[in-house]
Amino acid sequence: QTCALPISVVVESLGPLILASVVATFTTRAIHGASPLYRSPDLEFHSRWEAIPICVMGLLLGFLAPVFLQLLRRSEKLFSKLHSPAPVKMAIGGAMVGGIAIFWPQVCGNGQDLLSSLFHQNWDFDTILILLIAKLAATSATFGSGAVGGVFTPTLFIGSALGFLYGQTVLLLFPGLQPDPNIYGLVGMGAFLSAASGAPIMAILMVFELTLSYTIVPYLMVACVLGYYCSSIFERRFMYGESLERKGAAFFNSQLAEVSVTDLIRTDPITLPEQASFAEVARTFLQFQFQHLYVVDSSRRFLGAISLHDVKAFLDRPELETVVIASDIMDENFPRISPLQGTAEALRKFSETNSERLPVIDNFNSQRLIGSISKTDLILHLAGEQSRPAVARAVEPDVVEQTTDSTDGAVAAKSDTTK
Question: CA-CA distance, 256 to 413, in Å (whole number)?
Fold first, then answer.
């Protein structure tokens, strides 16, 4: 049973994934042909010792990927400090990209043409370095401003450019190895993508499908795995995982906005007068099995809450039954919520206490207790399930009829509230 859920999720996702991939492949081949997207000349390793510098490159790119992700986050944070509408922020980002494109027009677009040119035009070291810096700046401006541009193909170009620069450096330092910078560019593409996305298997398969080069596969696999592990030392929020997290947070916030505290209030919570004796406090805890009891005055003004955890060590002390009263042992600063506050505030206040329920007051001036809200009810409501509706009950002078929620493990009971 432990493995049933993951297996069922994978099987349910596999069918649509395969169907979509096959349709996309046939569509692409029908339009562009069956040749690889990034054509490269014949690749060949001249020495088995090239495995060493390629492994070192995988390590280096694994350490550089978190720097790239941090650059994107800082750019986004910088634009978020601008108190301007989204169109203005995107206009600023577009102006920055346009200014860069005046001098280096190659940075325009998603980077696919730039990546193809990298493998075929034999650019020198300085040209690749300048275009790498320009592309980094343009991508950061686009991503930070919130404009639609994407980071996938730029990530491929950045990895390839770093691989080319590394390959040319190896060629300069160790000419006897006769390294081919194209190989280092392709392997660098996969290693950097693996380190930035946190998905080494995806990077290996994707780079192979983009190039259809069997020669680089063993080296590509090693570099991708090394890049991923080096990146994971410093990074826990990879490129696409963070994007999905933000989308999930936005959906969760919209769900919170649609839920009202008023819809979740359970009326007539168990209360005690401030002059209730310790014996009455003990009897109420034993009868209703709550973790907290609310203390009110004669006008039902909320004064505080008594925690079972604080008093359970003294429940077998008969000498305290007539000496200690409820106001002596209550927590006056116990969190409370008003219907005017949102459910996001209710969740925040739940985090401040280990209680399953929060008292609900009419407002923070009169502090009159009108009910309680359950953490479980709130979570079930956010999950789309309706909890039991709160039912208003008539409060008799001597008897309070209370149906407690299942989370506290209580049962329907009647209690004489007089001493």
Answer: 33
d(CA 418, CA 255): 42
* Residue 200 backbone dihedrals phi, psi, to 5 degrees: -65, -40
- Give pLDDT tens digits for 379-407: 777 666 554 444 333 333 333 333 334 33
Contact residues for 399 (Cβ-Cβ < 8 A; gap 6+) = 414, 415, 416, 417
Stated pTM of the model: 0.58
Token reading at 386? 């309706």
What Rg, from alpha-carbon coordinates, does the chain have? 32
Mean pLDDT by runs of 10 across the 419 residues of the chain is: 43 77 86 70 76 93 93 88 86 91 85 78 88 91 80 88 93 86 89 91 86 83 94 80 54 59 81 88 83 89 88 75 83 87 78 83 89 82 55 35 37 35
74: alpha, beta or left, given left = phi > 0 and alpha = psi -120 to 50? alpha
Quote the CA–CA distance of 302 and 370 in Å, as a whole number.
Answer: 9
CA atoms within 13 A on the CB side of 410: 22
- Report the C-alpha dihedral over residues 364, 365, 371, 373, rounded to 10 degrees: 0
Element (H, E) at 285: helix 278-288
Strands 292-296, 271-273: pairing kind: parallel
